[in-house]
């Protein structure tokens, strides 16, 4: 029998009883400032760098052109430029991959893209688990004069209190818009089509690209994001195309395979032409298991939330399959694919750099990508403004003038044009399929057939 | 003219008698569920086969509910404790099993390394290379290799056995003569600690669990399909039910446990040790919870810290239907609840089901356990049998406040100074603490003064928050009318919650209020017509005569940063006003009546106190105060969300209120100081670098320790220390005078009248 130990991080001397509360495990405070945390040796800009994730070599040309940066490392002697970053981590649900993506991007910019005109980028991170945390992060970043722009990772809680403090005071760029406030609050911006665009696009895909669909069964998360996705976005689009036999069943965020079996039966999944799980990756795993338990294999259309390491581990380690994701499923996303990388969208650059600067086994398929791209887009704006002229107003002006192309996202950007969802700039989405252990572009920017729900 | 006190007492006693027998209730509930299905099936155009298929789809959930409920019944029969942490125990053992299966290691709780202090001191002295032994994080039993199935199960069950012994010897044995409130609080503390350990070790993300039973369909005649794993699990739960029934019916141990449950004194006289029986039942209960936790995790193919823990609500409903004594009725009720929920979930998808702007009316399925519990309690009156314990401990002391001017003005002045001089993060912490104090004050009225355990205070606060949002956004109701109306609406919710309290008390009431919290959260807060739909439930900042004092209004006073110190000042004024109001209630005849009801309802009724009226008053007043807290919370965030006012938040607030001292205004103030994101945790974070993620763990541990060692909370400990110092001073003076004996403090004088008895209750 062996004991496994960890070394206590002693930050200071504490006396008497109070010292006992100095918990050995609490080596990180909730709000931290970090610059480059990677020990990887980066190649000089303009040349090529070997990636740690096995994605081969990639040039910095795309990123230098996209950001308007200069090859080389940032100058440590220059005053750093601080960007606020807020993400939901540590609670249920939790999205650490968004932080990993944005940190990898910051490291990449500092090591290879010359920072912002030589100035190092610093992320002032603030993590959220509750509504109180959202307000705390908003207050902290609003009060910090060094922070002129705030980027978010993924928030399903705390966004309302965060935006109530920040909106109108400093530009807020939403990395992964999910619940309603992410696309309805004025004064915030998302350079993606967000869940509204993806979910509406999935409905268009089902109605126009799949054959003979009459009955659709959906399972959606019983939270504001899931409810809005199904009732306000998904169902009305299907109805518009004449598909009215649509059944949706809400499931709790923590629903298990047992709950999903029940929900699938209630939705009539066994007889549906298409089944649509609008849930997180854990929900997708439970839904897949429920399919097996009920002995059904329906045509399944879902979002990019359903792929990722947990799904692959479950299929390969727990079930002994060779599949990366469930065979035959369709996945909606932002128009490009992590599994069919192309250079023009910046995907190959992203994959190489997120593996190089991210932690080992980084979850690169989820919310990391949009945040990586958003940070490079912010750097683009800051380079255009000039390091010594950065203000919130100047950044807002850059946001308004930005019409794309956006890294990793298909289609033009049109910020503020959507009257219902004023924060959303993206307009197009795409669908890929995994079949026979291979990915293929079905309706996305890779085969020039990305879906614009507004024009469908 | 109403009936006399004695008549009312007799009426109350009559009302408390069960209207129907225990098996009768089980049969009635199952029968009612079947009848409902049959009636609605007849009305519905959907085929009977389809309805049966969907009804049986709840078999797996029924097994989950039954598994947790059986553990609750077992613990209650053995020790008289309603274990709110039974689901959390199943979850914890599930994690132990899963870790053994995946890594071969037993994880250890993330406790502080006491040697770190020595290392720090030595480093401070200049010896920077000195290092002490590291603190273990896990024990490797298998050389770093994962365990196979059976060794992992056996080791996990050994761990469950030890956990049961720990629960008994460290927590519930010391609490065996404590009042129900202390036991409830202790189980809530265990719930929080187990959950916090798992979150700290594994994060809150669901962990995949390897199947024990492969996922395959079982097809029945008529095309009905059920998952094989669900059927096996259900069969196992039924088998365990039969086994438990046989043990308690025929074995000497079972008979002794039943005897002790009926009459502890009698059991002692017959030579049985109630403590041994309680300990054995705790071990049995955690073993059962552990075994089923392992199986449930496998069937669910995932584990997370929340799901099992929250199964406690329907499980409590089933246990209550079984009268906390019948294993078979408990299991039957669990399946009936789950099947009804599954069928309702199917019915929800039909076009004729009542709709909102965003789909079917939400929360109907989640509200079902609450309805079952209320119906069961109404039919039985006093569902939970009283145990014939040797003695029951006294409730926390509720002192009569004095020196109010000094005790109010001084802390208020300190708070004002802090709001306008300290940095913004401290200011935010003070505001969070002030809002927390309001919720804690509401618990002082309800639990501290009247002894009613409510696990729904945050839900009631939420009712006010959502009402305020509607009033502000839809009707433009101005400040301060908006929050006042919202608090009155909350008082209405409080009175509704009070209706069951007229028939039940103690732990039963806690169960009812917890179920009510879940029902209101899902039925009301998640209803788009309340929650604001797409745009959310926003709350605009407060404005009065041109004054802007919302938290995000910028002011030039102070450092000019957010949050606005004037919002803090506004919160402080509210806290002071409410505290003075509650102090006056405590000092008045009404306060003495409330305390008399807390001490002994029958005696209070005999003395002419209107028990029902006192309870209604307390519930209404407490809900009004909580409503003000909900309104402040809405202003603080600029919006209200269901998550802020969920059932877990209510549990946590009860914990903080109890820690502070649930029976005094001072205790509420201290409770507010220690809430999450409040002053104390900000201090721990700033001064001792304690990460806020340890809030739940420290809160839970503090709760258990307080329940065992110091039921009167921090406020009680401070008061006692003060009294001892005062006594010491008096003794010293008297020894100097050697003339007059020292007078006892006013609070400790033996009461001479009933009114004074209320004061000393």
How large is the share of residues in beta strands of chain B? under 5%
Could you report the average pLDDT of chain B, rounded to the nearest whole number? 83
Query: Fraction of residues of chain A in helices?
Result: 25-40%
Helix/strand-derived category of chain B reads mainly alpha
Largest sheet of chain B: 2 strands, antiparallel
Main beta sheet of chain A: strand number and arrangement?
A: 7 strands, mixed
The outline of chain B comes out as: globular
Which strand-content bin applies to the residues of chain A?
Answer: 15-25%
Specify the overall morphology of chain A: globular
**Distance separating the two termini of chain B:** 29 Å
Mean pLDDT of chain A: 86
Question: Explain this structure to me?
Answer:
Chain A is of the alpha/beta class. Chain A has 14 helices and 16 strands. A seven-stranded mixed sheet of chain A has the order 11-10-12-13-14-15-16, sandwiched between helices. In chain A, strand 7, helix 5 and strand 8 form a beta-alpha-beta unit. Chain A is globular, with a radius of gyration of 22 Å. Chain A starts with a strand and ends in a 13-residue tail after the last strand. By secondary structure, chain B is mainly α. Helices cover 67% and strands 4% of the residues of chain B. Chain B contains 32 helices and twelve strands. The longest helix of chain B has 27 residues. The relative contact order of chain B is 0.12. The N terminus and C terminus of chain B are likely disordered. Classes of the chains: A alpha/beta (456), B mainly alpha (761). At the A-B interface, strand 1, helix 1, helix 4, helix 5 and helix 6 of A face helix 4, helix 6, strand 2, helix 9 and helix 15 of B.
């Amino acid at each position: 029998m062996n004991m496994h130990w960890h070394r206590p991080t002693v930050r200071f001397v504490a006396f008497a009883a109070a010292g006992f509360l100095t918990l050995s495990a609490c080596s990180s405070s909730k709000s931290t400032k970090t610059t480059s945390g990677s020990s990887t040796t980066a190649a000089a800009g303009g040349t090529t760098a070997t990636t740690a994730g096995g994605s081969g070599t990639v040039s910095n040309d795309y990123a230098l052109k996209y950001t308007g940066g200069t090859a080389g490392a940032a100058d440590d002697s220059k005053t750093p430029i601080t960007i606020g970053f807020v993400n939901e981590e540590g609670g249920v649900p939790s999205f650490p991959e968004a932080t990993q993506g944005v940190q990898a991007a910051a490291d990449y910019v500092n090591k290879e893209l010359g920072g912002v005109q030589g100035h190092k980028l610093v992320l002032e991170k603030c993590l959220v688990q509750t509504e109180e945390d959202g307000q705390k992060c908003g207050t902290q970043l609003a009060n910090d004069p060094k922070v002129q722009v705030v980027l978010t990772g993924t928030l399903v809680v705390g966004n309302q209190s965060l935006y109530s403090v920040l909106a109108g005071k400093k530009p807020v760029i939403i990395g992964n818009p999910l619940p309603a406030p992410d696309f309805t609050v004025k004064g915030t911006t998302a350079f993606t089509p967000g869940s509204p665009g993806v979910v509406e696009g999935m409905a268009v895909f089902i109605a126009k690209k799949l054959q003979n669909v009459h009955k659709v069964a959906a399972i959606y998360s019983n939270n504001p994001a899931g409810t809005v996705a199904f009732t306000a976005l998904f169902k009305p689009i299907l109805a518009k195309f004449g598909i009215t036999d649509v059944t949706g069943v809400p499931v709790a965020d923590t629903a298990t395979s047992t709950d999903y079996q029940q929900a699938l039966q209630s939705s009539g999944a066994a007889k549906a032409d298409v089944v649509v799980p609008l849930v997180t990756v854990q929900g997708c795993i439970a839904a897949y298991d429920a399919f097996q338990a009920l002995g059904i294999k329906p045509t399944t259309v879902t979002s990019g939330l359903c792929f990722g390491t947990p799904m692959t581990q479950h299929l390969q380690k727990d079930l002994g399959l060779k599949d990366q994701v469930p065979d035959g499923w369709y996945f909606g996303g932002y128009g490009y694919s992590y599994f069919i990388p192309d250079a023009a969208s910046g995907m190959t650059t992203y994959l190489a750099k997120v593996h190089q600067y991210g932690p080992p086994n980084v979850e690169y398929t989820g919310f990391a990508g949009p945040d990586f791209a958003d940070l490079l887009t912010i750097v683009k704006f800051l380079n255009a403004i000039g390091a010594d002229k950065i203000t919130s107003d100047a950044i807002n002006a850059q946001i308004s003038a930005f019409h794309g192309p956006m890294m990793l996202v298909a289609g033009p950007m049109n910020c503020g044009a959507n009257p219902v969802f004023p924060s959303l700039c993206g307009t197009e989405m795409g669908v890929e399929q995994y079949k026979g252990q291979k990915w293929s572009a079905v309706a996305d920017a890779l085969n020039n057939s990305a879906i614009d729900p507004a024009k469908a | 003219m109403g009936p006399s006190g004695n008549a009312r007492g007799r009426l109350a006693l009559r009302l408390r008698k069960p209207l129907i027998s225990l098996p009768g209730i089980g049969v009635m509930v199952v029968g009612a569920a079947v009848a409902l299905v049959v009636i609605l099936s007849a009305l519905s155009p959907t085929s009977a086969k389809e309805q049966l298929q969907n009804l049986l789809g709840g078999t797996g959930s029924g097994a989950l509910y039954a598994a947790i409920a059986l553990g609750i019944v077992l613990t209650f029969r053995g020790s008289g404790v309603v274990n709110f942490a039974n689901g959390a125990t199943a979850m914890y053992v599930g994690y132990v099993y899963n870790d053994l299966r995946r890594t071969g290691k037993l994880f250890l709780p993330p406790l502080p390394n006491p040697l770190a202090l020595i290392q720090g001191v030595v480093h401070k002295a200049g010896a920077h290379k000195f290092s002490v032994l590291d603190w273990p994080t896990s024990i490797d039993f298998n050389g770093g290799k994962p365990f196979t199935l059976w060794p992992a199960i056996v080791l996990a069950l050994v761990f469950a056995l030890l956990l049961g012994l720990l629960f008994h010897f460290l927590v519930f044995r010391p609490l065996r003569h404590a009042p129900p409130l202390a036991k409830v609080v202790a189980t809530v503390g265990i719930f929080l600690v187990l959950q916090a350990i798992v979150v700290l070790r594994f994060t809150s993300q669901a962990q995949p669990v390897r199947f024990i039973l492969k996922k395959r369909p079982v097809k029945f005649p008529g095309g009905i399909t059920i998952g094989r794993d669900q059927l096996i699990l259900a069969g196992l739960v039924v088998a365990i039910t039969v086994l438990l029934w046989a043990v308690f019916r025929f074995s000497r141990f079972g008979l002794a446990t039943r005897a002790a449950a009926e009459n502890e004194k009698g059991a002692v006289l017959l030579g049985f040790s109630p403590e041994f029986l309680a300990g054995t039942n705790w071990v049995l209960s955690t073993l059962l919870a552990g075994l089923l936790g392992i199986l449930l995790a496998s069937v669910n193919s995932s584990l997370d810290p929340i799901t099992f823990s929250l199964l406690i609500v329907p499980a409590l409903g089933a246990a209550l239907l079984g009268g906390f004594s019948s294993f078979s009725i408990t299991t039957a009720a669990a399946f009936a609840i789950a099947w009804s929920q599954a069928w309702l979930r199917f019915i929800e998808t039909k076009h004729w089901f009542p709709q909102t702007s965003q789909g079917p009316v939400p929360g109907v399925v989640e509200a079902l356990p609450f309805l079952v519990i209320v119906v069961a309690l109404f039919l039985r009156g006093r569902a939970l049998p009283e145990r014939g314990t040797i003695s029951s401990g006294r409730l926390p002391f509720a002192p009569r406040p004095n020196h109010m001017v000094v005790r109010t003005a001084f802390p208020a002045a300190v708070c004002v100074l802090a709001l306008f001089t300290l940095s913004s993060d401290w200011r935010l912490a003070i505001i969070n603490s002030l809002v927390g104090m309001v919720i804690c004050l509401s618990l002082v009225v309800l639990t501290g003064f009247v002894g009613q355990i409510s696990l729904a205070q945050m839900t009631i606060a939420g009712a006010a928050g959502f009402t305020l949002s509607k009033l502000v956004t839809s009707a433009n109701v101005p400040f301060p009318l908006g929050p006042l109306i919202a608090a009155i609406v909350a008082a209405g919710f409080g009175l509704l919650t009070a209706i069951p309290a007229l028939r039940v008390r103690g732990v039963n009431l806690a169960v009812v209020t917890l179920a009510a919290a879940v029902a209101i959260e899902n039925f009301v807060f998640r209803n788009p017509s309340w929650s604001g739909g797409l745009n959310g439930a926003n709350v605009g900042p407060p404005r009065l005569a041109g004054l802007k004092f919302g938290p995000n209004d910028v002011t030039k006073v102070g450092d000019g940063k957010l949050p606005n110190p004037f919002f803090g000042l506004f919160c402080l004024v509210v806290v002071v006003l409410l505290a003075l109001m509650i102090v006056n209630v405590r000092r008045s005849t009404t306060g003495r009546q409330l305390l008399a009801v807390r001490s002994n309802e029958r005696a209070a009724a005999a003395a002419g106190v209107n028990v029902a009226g006192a309870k209604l008053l307390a519930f209404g007043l407490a809900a009004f105060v909580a409503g003000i807290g909900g309104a402040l919370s809405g202003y603080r965030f600029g919006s209200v969300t269901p998550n802020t006012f969920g059932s877990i938040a209510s549990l946590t607030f009860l914990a903080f209120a109890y820690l502070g001292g649930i029976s005094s205004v001072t205790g509420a103030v201290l409770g507010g100081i220690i809430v999450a994101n409040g002053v104390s945790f900000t201090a721990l974070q700033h001064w001792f670098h304690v990460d806020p993620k340890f809030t739940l763990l420290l809160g839970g541990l503090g709760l258990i320790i307080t329940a065992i060692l110091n039921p009167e909370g921090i406020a009680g400990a401070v008061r006692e220390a003060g009294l001892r110092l005062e006594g010491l001073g008096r003794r010293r003076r008297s020894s100097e005078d050697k003339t007059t004996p020292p007078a006892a403090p006013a609070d400790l004088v033996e009461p001479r009248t009933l009114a004074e008895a209320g004061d000393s209750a």
